[in-house]
Amino acid sequence: VQLVESGGGSVETGGSLxxxxxxxxxxxxxxxxxxxxQYPEKELERIATIFSExxxxxxxxxxxxxxxxxxxxxxxxxxxxxxxxxxxxxAMYYCALKPNPGGSFMCRSLYYNYWGQGTQVTVS
Length: 124
Known about the structure:
With about 120 residues, this protein is mostly beta strands. The protein is built from no helices and eleven strands. A hairpin with a 5-residue loop joins strand 4 and strand 5. The radius of gyration is 13 Å and the shape is globular. The protein starts with a strand and ends with a strand. The model has no long low-confidence stretch (mean pLDDT about 95).
């Protein structure tokens, strides 16, 4: 299983970016997918997760209303639309996948089986 993020970059405060995560190696079965970020020398932080079966999503309070997670099953791609970006959103962003979860509630943990390489988002 491979996850490849793209779409990061530098943007001014108030700007927008859309991150993409292309998944290969798995096309069937229920899964959790999520976006996480990490600040330098800080712990990983869950931003948003989505359950493949019903697209039920969970978004961190600090980004709710600004960030939207979505999936395109046909393209096997996960997205994170980020609007009204702030300097505190500057971090390395990762997508992750957890296969065969017992239910959507399992999407909220940090324990995911597969991770992408990360894409840097810088807001100035």
